[in-house]
Amino acid sequence: MKVLLVEDDQPLAEALADALKDAGLLVEAVTTGGDADFLLKTERYDVVILDMGLPDGNGNHWLSQWREEGIDLPVLVLTARERWSDKAAGFSAGADDYVTKPFETAEVLFRLRALVRRSHGHAHPVLTIGDLAFDTHTGQVTLAGLPVTLTTQESRLLAYLMHAAPRLVTRVELSEHVYDRDQEPDSNVIDVQISRLRRKLGSDRIETVRGQGYRVLEADQSR
To answer: What is the pTM of this model?
Structure first.
């Protein structure tokens, strides 16, 4: 999951970004709506965390503009304002969820994961494809009920493929959503990590469509 964090309180932004990275998320942080606007039009993200009190305009202003321009990815709003009228204004501008400061980092993480799941059409926190299961709350992967140990990067890769399933995911899309922008994978890295996942999950679990991309299958779909 790739997160754009828009927060001008530097200590809060750093602490939240570190906590989300520790949970296996990719995070890019900016301090203004203008910087966020540029990135949203040039990069790909799965979700935005948006503070309402930005130095270059209220978060609702930026959010309304993005929605009008067709930027429809999920947005979680952060605010110190507790009045219902302020929250209603955020939802009217296009927010998908709301967290009031001060907050528990775990709550932000749960809400982010729920927003991303629902944006892909998954209501339940455990993604399942046949006997393969991925718990989005804990990061635990099981195959036929038995735990599977994955590296952080393998876990990110599998999570993205399972969120997207049964859709085919291109290499470009994986590069944009699973890998840090400053550490984009070379042509070999994705293939190597897909091979490692196949060794751990079964060779028939991830299909390669040559020249197009990858998708996760139920074990008997490829037979």
So the answer is: 0.79
